[in-house]
Amino acid sequence: MTWLRRGSSEPLWKEEFPVRTADERYVTRRQLTKFLVLTSLGMFVGNIWILIRSIFYKAPIYGHQPVAQLGEIPVGGVKLFSYPSKDDHCILIRTAEDEYVGYSQKCTHLSCAVYYSQAENRLECPCHKGFFSIKDGAVLQGPPSRPLPRIVLEARGEQLVAIEVKG
Amino acid sequence: MPTSNDLPPQTRGLTAIAGAMSLIVILLIVQIWLLSAALESFLSGKLHTALPAAVFSGVMFLICLGLYAFVDRVDSEVRGSGNGR
Ligand code: FES
Question: In whole angstroms, how far apart are CA A93 and each of A62, A83, A142, A150?
Fold first, then answer.
């Protein structure tokens, strides 16, 4: 059986491997165009995948977990903990006498661990110098485009309890 | 002054294909940007951007497909006429 290209009387193999250089220019351009269109299809499929994930997205349910004792760390001090799972590393900072903030330690750029810089009073990522606000985790500088996820904390008796992750 | 009609069909065909390819490349760049923006907003919890991004990406893919059909047609027409078919 001989495969023919649409609108052509030549067999397909002859069309794809032309003898003349002038014809070959057409083949290479057409093949590159085909590759570009397939890439475009890939992008479209990627967008569809995001759409499907968005449709079936379920807001996670967080458990309550004690992370520190009130007064356990000094003002300006930090404590590392894991929340909601033991692989999600977070940082707790005591910013004032009665004020604590908690953030995910994973930088929103490429997941390096952020640390608290007391001198600058901000969270810093050492990898590409991404800086985050201590107030709300917003990006102050650098390549990250999203704020750090914030850990919602609640004081229960003498304990500080993590109840939710925001952002 | 010579016009594009004075050029041989082989050259005209290549110019048309180059034009179509440039358009496809531009659309691809926009699609890549759209995909990264949609992913970024999905990861930051904004789910409402996914639908318009998917629709626009689909439209751009269809335009690319149309341009490929155009390239394919020019290719077979020009090479057909060049070969005396
Ligand atoms: S990984 Fe944090 S700034 Fe790049």
Answer: 21, 15, 22, 12
